[in-house]
Amino acid sequence: MFDANELASLDSNYFTVIYKDIYDVTIKSNNTGHYWSLHSPGYPEPGTVIIFHSHFASCPYHQHGRATSLRQAVKSIKSHDRFQLNGRKPVRR
Predict the structure, then answer these.
(1) Which one of 24, 32, 62, 82 is separated from 11 by 20 to 30 angstroms, measured CA to CA?
(2) Has residue 39 been placed in a domain?
C-alpha cells in the first residue's frame, strides 16, 4: 500500500497524475508522454510495487518491472525516460 506521504511526494512538474489511491497510481511522464501504472498489492510482501508501462493511452500496458517502494518505482521511470530521450528511436504506431 502507498501511504499519504508517498502519494504527496509525486512530482507534479515531472508527471501528470491521472489517478492515485492507496493501491494504484497512474501517471503520465511529461517528458516522454509514456503512461505508467504502479500497483502495490500489499501481498505477498509489503513494499512490493509492480510497474506497468504503455507508450500510448490507447495501447495495452505491459509489465515493466518491480520496485520495493513508490520512490524506487519513480526512480526507475526517470531512468527509462533518460534512456528514451538520449538516443532511442521513437516508437511509432
Answers:
(1) 62
(2) yes
